[in-house]
Amino acid sequence: MSIIVLMMVAFDIWKHGLHAPHHDEDTADHIAMLLMYGQVPIMFWFAASGRKRVRRILPTLFLQLGLWAVTFVAAVRLS
Asked: Would you tell me how many other CB atoms lie within 10 Å of the CB of residue 12?
């Protein structure tokens, strides 16, 4: 989900550039928000279901959290 949002951000940068005029939120922005915040319950479920095998799930959980953080920072910085 985060990779899809990062691809959407990259496409927007490619299409409008870094210094594009501020625009109203369009459909892509709403889809990106739904994907970002829809991922949070999935991460919690993943962490809760794997709590007995923590060492095994930590790399995947850190990757998910890292991508989510990068996506969030990119969305805040570029909007």
From this structure: 18
Low-confidence ranges of the chain (pLDDT < 50): none
Query: Which residues lie closer than 8 Å to 70 by C-beta, 6 or more apart?
Result: 2, 6
How far from chain centre, in Å, is Cα 5? Answer: 5
Helices marked H in the chain — which ranges? Answer: 2-16, 27-49, 54-78
Q: Which one-letter DSSP state was computed for residue 20?
A: P
Say how far apart CA 1 and CA 65 lie, in whole Å.
Answer: 11
Token pair for 65: 């959290």
CB-based contact 38:4 (threshold 8 Å) = no
